[in-house]
Amino acid sequence: MSTSPFWVSTCCFSLLWTLVEGNPQLIGSSEPIVAAPGDDVLLPCRVDPEWDAVGKTVEWSRPDLRVPGGQRLVEYVYVYRFKKMDRDMMMETYIQRTSLSEEGLRRGDVSLTIRNVSLEDNGRFRCFLPSLMRAREVQLVVDPNFVKMMTTETVPHITLITPTPQDETSSTNRWTRLHICIPVFFFFIICLSAVFIYIVKRCRQKQEVLRLAALGPCRNYPNLQINTGF
Q1: Which conformational region is residue 148 in: left (phi greater than 0), alpha (psi within -120 to 50 degrees), or beta?
Q2: CB-based burial label for 125 (10 Å; 0-12, 13-18, 19+)
Q3: I need a surface site. Which of 91, 126, 145, 159 has the fewest CB within 10 A?
Q4: Three-state secondary structure along 102-142?
Q5: Within a 10 A sphere around the Cβ of 164, how many other Cβ atoms?
Q6: Is residue 191 within 8 Å of residue 12, measured between CB atoms?
């Protein structure tokens, strides 16, 4: 029984830590990435919290694209494995136009850069990390009219650079973790209080046993008189 309080405390702490830390999630963009034909775009996808993706497999594919007569069930836009690009798995049209950031991989940033986009690039792109069993989809919209909107100012040409996404999913995950942590924290405090009460109760029981043991002779012979005279 002496190990019970420690075991309960350890279990509560492990549960609290697991829920607070959470599992790694993929963060992308909840809004479509809009570009004009000929622009370079960045399809955001990163691991939260940061996670070293160097040497891990990263797959970018087009889930809604089915090439007639294609033998593969998935058409890959970019495949990174064994610390290099796997050209044999990729669609030919993307081999020379796609890339990942080596520096970003060290932080879990697996965002895909696509150069010189065209109308054929319209659609959904899926980022998948087999090691984490996590996937995230990003919508790319290539709009010819986007150039006209951008050229209303006297700028000859602007290459679209998509900023680091402040995804709503990230905020949602943080609020979800907070909502989980609050009740778990109170549950942890209650468990600690129960352990403390248990320990105090056990100590009092031991003290009571010792006190009764000390009073034992007197309780067994209440009429015993000790004569100290001669």
Answers
A1: alpha
A2: buried
A3: 145
A4: HHHHHCCECCEEECCCCHHHCEEEEEEECCCCEEEEEEEEE
A5: 12
A6: yes
Q: Where are the domains of the chain?
A: 1-25+167-216, 29-165
- 3-class DSSP state of 79: strand
* C-alpha 16 chain-centroid distance: 16
Q: Which CATH architecture has domain 29-165?
A: Sandwich (2.60)
Q: How many helices (H) and strands (E) does the chain have?
A: 6, 11
